[in-house]
Specification:
3-stranded antiparallel β-sheet, 3 domains, 12 strands, Arc Repressor Mutant, subunit A, alpha+beta
């Protein structure tokens, strides 16, 4: 799972839901297994083991075993409130659905097996626009579920370098309900913990400030960007990849020539395949 990538529709990144740390790890590890070059159906079964969770998160195997069974049982009842269509086509709508339709824990093997809910499929598969992509490794070492959520929100705006959110929207997205109703508690236990972990464990740096309307704090402003070392490493890796090889059978030389600014090589390759299919006789 070293190079696993997460793809989510922006509507899912901005959805309102609450998951525990191990529920997040199970869901994200399974999302990282979704193939970009083939359709996803609600019959597809995804599996993740306690050993894999322990390996990519850097935790003890025994701890992973202890947490995965309880997390898998709770996941069946976890709901998510989505506020628009997967690719922002058609009228905006609010949909309440579940992450999974079936889930089981194979205790002897320490494995969770799940099928994503039918209504969840469009937000994970065949995304052509309005989606967020990041590496599973970016959030693997985080121990705060709020840090994972905030990282996704920043990754969605990766090219902007700044994101301002209202406190009302932020609280709803994280489903904080009545927790941390005092702004000082929210900043201390949610915002500061999340930004500290993003700075420590992810390829992004982030700072934040608050904005008031009158005397009341109403907005949070996050400034962020790529860490220098990570950015340099990515450029080096891109240079190495471009010298040889291919993605989905398309040579890197072709991909490089057709890539849009900021578009990953994998996304470029998939776009080339889609364009080729659209030209085929029907």
């Amino acid at each position: 799972m070293q190079n696993a990538q997460i793809y989510k529709a922006n509507a899912l990144v901005e959805a309102s839901y609450r998951l525990t740390l191990y529920e997040q790890r199970i869901i994200l590890a399974c999302i990282s297994q979704v193939r970009r070059d083939e359709p996803l159906t609600d019959r597809k079964l995804y599996k993740i083991s306690a050993q894999e969770i322990a390996d990519f998160s850097g935790t003890q195997l025994g701890t992973a075993y202890q947490n995965m069974k309880a997390a898998s049982e709770r996941l069946f009842d976890r709901r998510v409130s989505l506020h628009e269509s997967p690719n922002r086509k058609g009228p905006a709508r609010v949909k309440l659905t579940r992450w999974v339709q079936t889930i089981e824990y194979l205790e002897d093997e320490g494995i969770v097996a799940l099928r994503f809910g039918t209504d969840m499929i469009p937000y994970l598969s065949q995304l052509t626009e309005q989606f967020t992509r990041y590496a599973l490794a970016d959030i693997a070492k985080m121990s705060s579920t709020h840090a994972i959520r905030l990282y996704e929100m920043l990754a969605q705006w990766r090219g902007k370098g700044k994101r301002e959110v209202s406190l009302e929207w932020f609280r709803e997205a994280l489903q904080l309900d009545n927790k941390y109703s005092n702004i000082r508690d929210l900043k201390r236990w949610v915002v500061e913990v999340a930004t500290d972990q993003i700075n420590e464990h992810s390829p992004l740096w982030v700072s934040w400030e608050q904005r008031k309307t009158g005397r009341k704090v109403t907005h949070l402003i996050f400034s962020f960007g790529e860490k220098e070392k990570k950015s340099t490493q990515n450029k080096s890796n891109a240079s190495k990849r471009s010298s040889k090889g291919a993605i989905y059978g398309i040579p890197f030389t072709v991909i490089e020539g057709k890539a849009y600014p900021g578009e990953s090589y994998e996304d470029t390759a998939l776009r080339i395949l889609d364009e080729a299919k659209s030209r085929e006789p029907r």
